[in-house]
Amino acid sequence: MTPAATALELPTPVATPLLKTSNLWVKPEQGQRTGSVKYRMVYWKIRKAIQGHEIGARTRLVEVTSGSTGVALAYAGQLLGLKVEVHSYSTMAIEKRTRILGYGAELVVHPVTTSVEDLLDLVRQRVRAGGYWHLGQFDRSSTMASYEDLGRELLGQLHAENASPELFACPVGTGGLLQGVGAVLKAAFPRIRIVGVEPAAGEAIEGTRNTELCRLTNDPFDARFPDEIVRVRRPSTRVTLGGMTLGESASAAVEMAGRRERNSFVIVAPD
């Protein structure tokens, strides 16, 4: 299996719909391959690495992830016939764990007392030893770039509906999605306000973090990028739109926007 042939075997991301409800435009990436927006990042980065001959037929793909990225990486590895190694915590959701293992990936579970930095150092050691390729979801520039296609897809849908939302709201995990899509929207709508949605202190919302309390060395999230950060409680229920039940982080963003009825929002629902 040559790198060139491999590049053709990953299916392109699905063009997800844009749904309108009340004062909100919502793009539900739950309908994306593997059920989350993370497939777009994994697809973009792997395709770029294959084209650059960084990945070959015997390369092992590796990443530190709490769930959705691991699912997308395991799925891609299975399609490409490549081994995948996912490092995560013992608190990983059973559903995500089951899917990662179901796609044939190796899941290495660590105690929650191990820092993200220590896990990333472990991955870097593997890469230095040879035979591994690191997805690098915590790299700011490449992760932002991996979501620009999504931003252009969303922008085209907004133009088709003659929509000019006042605010773009997005849950903050690594921060790449907010920044990548936000940069595209800001260029098209200079007055749009970028809103990062994070869990309040003491709250746990799957796929998000409080960037004041959980900072990383060389953090991919630039706290100066959003115009506003709103910290919210875990959603009381999961929101259903267009027959799809959104994930916790997206439901939290929709709940937040629903409390600000005087403003029009566009929201990317990660899962």
Report on this model:
There is one protein chain. The chain has helices at 3-7, 38-51, 68-80, 94-102, 116-129, 140-146, 148-160, 176-188, 248-258; strands at residues 19-21, 24-28, 60-64, 84-89, 106-110, 132-134, 167-171, 193-199, 228-232, 240-241, 244-245, 265-269. With 271 residues, it is an alpha/beta fold. It folds into 2 domains: 3-32 and 144-269, 3-Layer(aba) Sandwich (Rossmann fold); 41-141, Rossmann fold. It has a 6-stranded mixed sheet. A 4-stranded parallel sheet has the order 5-4-3-6, with helices on both faces. Strands 10-11 form a two-stranded antiparallel ribbon. The radius of gyration is 18 Å and the shape is globular. It starts with a helix and ends with a strand. Mean pLDDT is 93; it is low at 1-8.
CATH architecture of the largest domain: 3-Layer(aba) Sandwich
Largest sheet entry: 6 strands, mixed
Q: Could you name the CATH class of the largest domain? A: Alpha Beta
Instruction: Work out the count of structural domains.
Output: 2
Order of helices and strands: HEEHEHEHEHEHHEHEEEEHE
Number of strands: 12
Number of helices: 9
- Roughly what is the average pLDDT, rounded to an integer? 93
Q: Which term fits the overall shape?
A: globular
Structural classification? alpha/beta
Distance between the termini: 32 Å
pLDDT < 50 stretches: 1-8
- CATH fold field value of the largest domain: Rossmann fold
**DSSP strand content:** 15-25%
Helicity level? 25-40%
Rg: 18 Å
Strand line-up in the sheet with most strands: 1-2-12-7-8-9
